[in-house]
Amino acid sequence: MSIFFYRLSLHACLMNPSACGYTGRGHSHPETPINKMHNKISRISFLFFVAVNSCQLLVPASLIGEENIRQSSIDLKSISLEKINGEVQSFGSLTDKEYLVVVFIGNECPLAKIYLPRIGTLAHQYQDVAEIVGVNSNSQDTVEEIKEFVRRNAVSFPVYKDAQGQLADTLNAKRTPEVFVIQRDGKVLYQGRIDDQYGVGYAREAAGEEYLRNALAQLRQARPISIPRTQPVGCFIGRMQSAINPVGKITYHNKIGAIVQKHCVECHKEGEIGPFALTNYDDVAVWSETIGEVIEQGRMPPWHANPAYGSFSNTRRMSPEEQSAIFQWIKDGCPQGPADHPPTNTKSISGWQSEKVPDLILPMREKPFTVPADGTVEYQYFVVDPGFTEDRWVTAAEVVPGNRSVVHHAIVFISAPDQQNLDSYGWLSAYVPGQRLTPLKPGQARKIPAGSRFIFQMHYTPNGSIQEDQTKIGLTFTSPDNVDEEMITLISANRHFKIPPGIDSHRVDSILTEFPQDAKLTALTPHMHLRGKSFRIIHRDKSNNKTILLDVPQYDFNWQHVYRLKTPLSLNSAKQIECTAHFDNSENNVVNPDATSTVRWGDQSWEEMMIAFFEISVPRNRNGHEEQKSEEQKQDQRQYVQATQLAEAWMRKWDHNLDSLVQRDEVSESFRRFAFSKIDRNYDQEISLEETISYISDTLSEEKQQEDIRRQLDQLK
To answer: Mean pLDDT, to the nearest integer, of 395-422?
Structure first.
């Protein structure tokens, strides 16, 4: 193990629009019963575009034919728009050019904000072809708010207010930023998205298809637009509608408010990662259609663990009864009801999640770091010396980003004075959007050795404008006399994989076999990148009985959950913890950066990782600051190192195709018949390095067989 082993990147995208851009499989949402319900104002945000269902697929634009385009011309003269200076102007007088491009935008739509510079560039490059204008049809966005939006985002093209939603209704526009290319006679030539870079569940590094640019280029050449329609993604245009049953039995005050407080408010309150608050009736009613849609589609609340396995204290699943209540409430028109039993509002938290202000607050650097408007920002590392002259015990460590719009994740490591000591460089805390601070139990703490420094690993994702960030960490201390259990983080990882191109389910395994004495497992966190497909963690006891601790059948890069066990699991009977991950490196994976490349371990999201983090509690040895390993543990460690060396030598001999696995056809006939199944412990007809290490470790522990196994392996080398 090396220091690099600990340089781990936790990625998540909850509400960081630049991080996941948009999230989804890029198709428009079908018309569902929820979509048909009459609601108040409907708007949507990136939070609700974080996809859970990996089956959602992009509808190829080429399959949406011209027959779906509005064929009749629009009466331009009958529609009026309001300038942000308050003047009213006829839609037909917006331009004297042959073509007009209307881009529907919204003040709170993250995707619309991201596309603003791109729209401005196209407006300049194709000014000889068409006039590009922005139109805000949201009922909730006032002219003054739009004016401020234009100023704050340096919008370079004209923006108008569609006060009554007349234009949006005429064009049947649904989302922002939805685009319409309109000929002077009122005929719609193109309708849909700007490009395919963002969708529900994904954000590509760059657009593969630039629909609007291509349409304008074809018009410049006097050619017909080859793809006249694509499915738009983005925020719902806010429209005010009449309530159907405003006095329904289910009201906000008697039921809905409590459900929202339970499942939503932790992220959707002032100062948190949600782009809007859900702390009162008006907030929830405004977002009712969006709430109904994302619940119906299973995207909210976010949770990816298979309910058939494991029991977790932080489960975010909404019960079927709660879902039904919300659907009925929306259908009834979002009745408020009498405030006889109003829900208890969660106090808005600005800054820290902890119950009190931390004892020590340390910024990552004295001056903010400047994040560029676009492009890829390499991981940034900042070293901070807290000046500890004695060991400190920490009961809470919270990382708070200075600018949530560009901080994809932040990890803080402990770098102890002796960098050669493998135990001297470890995990302290992290920020990942949507992850909640869980205070340690009384008597538990994490140790920071005297002379240690903190290393901030920062992953930034530009959001379309130049930003600054000054992330910080807050520490809460306790006396060593109060510490009964030390919290540590164990890691099971496989850094030696090679994912071939075009493979839709490539398996990678890792095994954790060493545990501190009397250790208890308290939490699990699987981690992969964009090609991650599924992850399973299994506990195998010394009698070879298996228990599935966690199953994530549809891994989502945008949500990095910490799964906290309701009841800590004693590891005294553990033989090993087995981790199995599958990766999709095929073209069917819409977030795949490159399906033609062979993928190996790396920090960046276009590379891959296969890691499981295990939060462990161990009894503190009060006779010394360091836990003293027993002679038996030392012997086990020596055997593990020896087994690893032997296993690596054996793999080098038999892994002929260099895929980090040994298949049956790669070994001798005698080995296939008599030994293969002994090492292939999961019976998948492949032997991994971890399986080989596990087998040799077990054999070496049996004293009478040590010489035999050494002799056999020597013969194989």
So the answer is: 79
